[in-house]
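Morning!

This is the sequence you dropped in the shared folder:
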Amino acid sequence: MSGGPGGGMMLLMRPSASAAVDCPLVRGPAATTYSRTLHRACLILGGVAQLAVQLQVTEAELRSWLEGEIEPPLEVFLAAVEVLLLGSDVAPRA
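The structure's back. Tokens below.
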């Protein structure tokens, strides 16, 4: 199993139900496939800090991508997609 941009092992940790999650969501023209994917990965991992650690980037970089200011590098985007894919296996069903 590959991991973040460095190719290490990926560990998905679910936040507790009571945790407040800091995951900015961009709406309108600034919302892109990149920002929406990063937002969803952020929710899965429990916040910006956790996703930044997983992706091996700074929180400032991650926030600029989440807010649609700039596009993330391809390897970061693909690592976020992997979080989504692995997170969908453990996400509770309604």
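Headline: Residues 3 and 9 are 5 Å apart (CA to CA).

More detail when I'm at my desk.
O.
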